[in-house]
Design a protein that fits this description.
Number of strands: 0
Largest sheet: none
Structural class: mainly alpha
Helix content: over 70%
Shape: elongated
Distance between the termini: 14 Å
Order of helices and strands: HHHH
Strand content: under 5%
Length: 110
């Protein structure tokens, strides 16, 4: 998948979906349902880790821990850090894609 660009496509789709997930977490915080937030955070942590998105995974772990102890302030802070990490990762992915677009096929990961 990596050499064909399939990995980048999957990563891009995942990153595109994360803002929707984060919006759901914010809405759940208004209720609040900390157990549900912890479930979302756990899923984000694992999937981000699978994609090698260490900062997002780490922040989602913090979100999960904060939700487990019903720490609203740190839940909010962790959500903000995840959003920033997603934005940073999208910028890196877009730069990588733009750089690869100018290379001959097969040379993108050389």
């Amino acid at each position: 998948l990596k050499s064909s660009g399939g990995w980048e496509h999957l990563l891009s789709e995942y990153l595109s979906d994360l803002p929707r997930q984060i919006s759901s977490v914010r809405a759940i915080l208004d209720i609040p349902n900390y157990e549900k937030i912890a479930q979302y955070a756990h899923r984000i942590k694992g999937t981000a880790g699978t994609y090698g998105l260490e900062a997002i995974s780490r922040e989602a772990g913090q979100l999960e821990r904060s939700a487990q102890v019903h720490d609203r302030e740190n839940v909010s802070l962790a959500i903000g850090r995840i959003v920033k990490s997603v934005e940073s990762q999208n910028i890196r992915l877009n730069r990588r894609s733009a750089g690869a677009a100018g290379k001959p096929e097969g040379a993108a990961n050389a």
